[in-house]
Write a structure and sequence with these properties.
- By secondary structure, the protein is α+β, with helices and mostly antiparallel strands.
- It has helices at residues 13-20, 60-82, 105-123; strands at residues 24-28, 31-37, 46-52, 91-97.
- The radius of gyration is 14 Å and the shape is globular.
- It starts with 12 loop residues before the first helix and ends in a 7-residue tail after the last helix.
């Protein structure tokens, strides 16, 4: 449970476009989070994608660092989300980084913990699949 498998990443273009049309999104600074129940079930209760804007961070090393920090914070705290999702459901999540500066890991982790808890509460009332 303490790893981040490849199947926990959102790589399907069709699912990504569906996610962008979601009506459930909120800002948990420094992230904007967009989430949607997936139309395709997966091996894990959630799949994530992370976006860091090129206009705010010109250097790829900075964008990659923020994505690494976000992935690590998600990996360490995904149990907050997984406990709230009904079995048989898969949630697709997009984290969009909003700040102009590189945040510390503790700031990223704190924001992710709050966001994952809020998302788990929102999707906890999903009906169970047969």
């Amino acid at each position: 449970m303490n790893t981040l498998h490849k199947s926990e990443r959102l790589t399907n273009k069709t699912l990504f476009e569906e996610l962008l049309s979601s009506d459930f999104s909120f800002i948990q600074y420094p992230f904007r989070m967009v989430a949607k129940e997936s139309s395709h079930s997966g091996d894990y209760p959630a799949r994530i994608a992370i976006s860091v804007g090129k206009k705010k961070f010109k250097h790829a090393v900075d964008r990659n660092r923020l994505k690494r920090l976000t992935r690590e914070a998600f990996r360490c705290n995904k149990s907050l989300l997984y406990e709230g999702i009904a079995p048989g459901h898969t949630i697709d999540i997009l984290f969009i980084y909003l700040d102009n500066r590189i945040a510390t890991f503790s700031k990223v982790e704190k924001a992710l913990q709050s966001a994952l808890t809020k998302t788990a509460l929102h999707f906890s009332n999903l009906p169970a699949h047969e």
